Write the structure tokens for this entry.
Amino acid sequence: MQLKPLFLALTWALAPAAQAANLSDMIRDAQAYDAQYASARAAWQAGQEKSVQGRAGLLPNVNLGGNVRYNSVNSTLPGGDSNYDSNGLSINAAQPLFRKQNQVQFEQSKNQVKIADVQLKVAEQDLILRVAQAYFDVLQAQDNIAFIDSQKSAITEQLASAKRNFEVGTATVTDTHEAQARFDLAVAQEIAEQNTLSIRQRALEKVIGKPAGSLDTLVELKQLNAESGSMDEWAARAADGNLQGEIQRLSKAIADQEVERNRAGHYPTVDAVAGYSINNGQNFGSTQVDTRTATIGVELNLPIYQGGLVNSRVREAVANQEKARQDLEVAAREASLQARQAWLNVNSGAARVRALEQALASTQAQLDSTKLGLQVGVRTNLDVLNAEQQVLSARRDLAGARYAYLLAGLSLKAAAGALSAEDLQPIDGLLTGQRSNPGTSTPDVKTMPAPTPLNLKKDTLSSLSKPAKTAAR
């Protein structure tokens, strides 16, 4: 019986401490679970077989055949009717010596494998952006709940102060009603944000395959600088390095090769052939013989006329070649536009964060001044509540701007085709797991005791709403 407490103590001591997850942890979980990424990985595996299939047209073909037959022969020759069994076995091999179509098809298969590789990279970048968006959405919802909780605490203080001032006759009941209304609105907002947080947590869970748990939170960003390189430089990088553009470039190369492959339909083909056959029970009149035949040689096949099929296929390939060229141009322009938009979002996002930081400082100073003005009687309780609402809005906007700034940086690298998991390490350095999850630590709305409104009679409401005389000091 004494060993059980010791065993439990050792178990708790050796159990790994629960730690908050950062963005890189979420990416690793998503790579192992996300169905969309798993589908892309399976497509990549299928694409690797294209080179094997293309190379098969340049390698020997070996066929083995056999037969067993019952033969019934009716002949006008005397004694020509006969019934007999026969069987045969043959093996044939052909090695292409010159097949232009097969050679071009092999080169096409190499580009198809490259497309599969690039498509997997596209899926990786998309996964990073999706997880980052879901991660920051959860953090934003958590921040909103924390901000509202702080606002509720401040409103509760204002409500208690308004009640005290009303009781001593230095304020009207209107201040109490206004504070109560603001508190009720804050409770309603908190309920909505709790619902939003639950939805966003489920969205993140759908990607990583498990409950998100506690997440590292973003610390204050410092030294926000505009992205190095001009907008035109990033646009040029995107035009050359964007992954969708790379896919279109490879598709254009395949279209060029398709024209060449179809034109090769006019070319002769040369194969080295060899074969060996065994035929037993062949009937030659009244004689049945067994034969063994071995062959080796070279075969030439020159197409002369195929009803215009080859020319039609060439014209079709030329049209598809032009289509691929235009698709490449569209992809290059779209990549350039995406890079310009992301560059503007990064640079304007950095400026917006700095502006909102200053706005938060200003609104906080305004709140402090308004509270002081309330104490000296030049401001009302409503002015304080409005100032607190402005501080809350500034905090919410600042948090959203910080997340948008980080996402814009990832989007800019994705537009240039340079986004990878290593780019998340600087963001992980801005995250900390010290703060608990606001989504779970914030008290439930139902357990928060709302201040009880004053129960006033109708006949005294009008008199109480009038300004009361200042209490004697």
Q: What stands out?
A: The longest helix spans residues 100-168. The chain has two domains: 19-58+99-267+308-464, 70-97+269-302. The chain has 13 helices and six strands. Residues 1-18, 434-473 have pLDDT under 50 and may be disordered.
